[in-house]
Design a protein that fits this description.
The chain is of the alpha/beta class. The protein contains 8 helices and 15 strands. The strands form 3 sheets. It has a 5-stranded mixed beta barrel. A 3-stranded antiparallel β-sheet has the order 13-14-15, with no helix packed on it. Helix 4 packs across helix 6. The relative contact order is 0.19.
Length: 367
């Protein structure tokens, strides 16, 4: 254990929801640091350490208190105690969404990435209740630019065969609980077929299994795209597929990220431990937590420390965003009445066309 550093020496936060995820995160540290004093208002218990050049703050949600609100509370306390934090990582397990566009298997890794008009994470259970269902409102922020740039660099490294993700997984697998062999068989059932009963699928109908081609290598694949976040566990294949279709392709479901994106700039990394259906169990959780942690470590190793130090702190980033929003809200609004646009001369007449504030069209014709 190294000499004690100061609170201002730590620049990156890492949040876990479950103890098994927290254990995987701790195993990724290159060295662990002594704990620091914190205020009575901060109920988090931290693990401090270093990954590559970066001093890290690791925290886990209180036992039994998962969900977006609990995640937000942990992150807010973290950034208040460690004010030099620039950004965070939300790393752990998630339920995969198998589909034609993404051959997602258990143990694979899903990383939030902006696409289809979304910032990378969508809160699928937030909005207005209507007779046709939920009218989803709001927008969750994209990950910080420095993290998205690191994602591009790591993708390029993987394409060139220069990634060490597998090496990080192999090191973690030396702990029996995190080994791939202990996870068991990867079984996928049809989306509309529900689990019979019990903790295994022994009594489920084998004819409803989806047969998939075996991969040439037993190495987790990394998928980039949308992650669906909500306050309830997704364990229904039909609902899973409906929501994925609504957002034109969701890769996984989880329960924490929506509580962070607008108040704690971060990237979300999920290891797939089930298929978000009624057949889910916990056998794959340790291995999937390990694959997600391994990706997160490799991502941090491609980010230069100098670039992190040049990045605004979380408080500065949130403050700037809040100031911009307040300035937009303070801009003068158009007066009630008619708003017109001059279309110029048409057949010798000047034409103005516009709308009333209620949306009705109005055209004035001046000779």
């Amino acid at each position: 254990m190294t000499p004690r550093l100061s609170h201002m020496d730590y620049t990156i936060g890492w949040v876990s929801a479950l103890p098994i995820e927290f254990a995987a995160a701790q195993e990724m540290l290159d060295e662990q640091h002594e704990s620091l004093l914190q205020s009575d208002d901060d109920a988090n218990i931290y693990t401090l350490g270093r990954i590559g050049e970066h001093n890290m703050v690791l925290a886990c949600l209180p036992a039994g208190q998962t969900g977006t609100n609990s995640t937000a509370a942990v992150a807010m306390q973290m950034k208040s105690t460690f004010r030099a934090i620039r950004f965070g990582l939300m790393v752990g397990i998630g339920g995969g969404v198998p589909g034609e566009n993404a051959d997602i298997r258990l143990g694979d890794i899903v990383v939030s990435q902006p696409e289809k008009g979304h910032g990378g994470v969508i809160q699928y259970d937030f909005g207005k209740s209507t007779p046709k269902g939920i009218d989803r409102t709001g927008f969750l922020n994209t990950p910080p630019r420095i993290l998205l740039s690191a994602v591009s660099k790591l993708q390029a490294d993987c394409n060139r065969g220069r990634s060490n993700i597998s090496a990080h997984i192999a090191k973690l697998s030396q702990l029996p609980k995190f080994s791939h062999e202990r996870a068991g068989e990867d079984i996928l059932f049809e989306g509309g077929y529900n689990h019979i009963k019990g903790g295994t699928c022994v009594q489920c109908d084998d004819s409803r299994k989806i047969l998939r081609e075996e991969r040439a290598e037993n190495i987790p694949e990394v998928h980039y795209g949308l992650i669906a976040s909500g306050n309830q566990v997704m364990r229904d294949g039909t609902t899973r597929d409906q929501i994925s279709l609504e957002f034109k392709g969701v890769l996984c479901f989880e329960m924490e990220a929506a509580g962070l994106m607008n108040s704690f700039p971060c990237l979300v990394v999920r290891g797939i431990c089930d298929y978000a259906d009624s057949h889910k169990n916990k056998k794959w959780q340790p291995y999937a937590a390990g694959t997600a942690a391994a990706y997160a470590k490799e991502l941090l190793l491609v980010i230069p420390r100098a670039d992190v130090l040049k990045t605004r702190t979380v408080d500065e980033t949130i403050g700037e965003a809040r100031g911009y929003k307040e300035s937009v809200m303070a801009e003068p609004k158009p007066a009630a009445g008619l708003v017109f646009e001059n279309y110029g001369s048409i057949r010798g007449k000047n034409i103005l066309q516009g709308q009333t504030m209620s949306g009705g069209p109005n055209t004035l014709n001046f000779s």
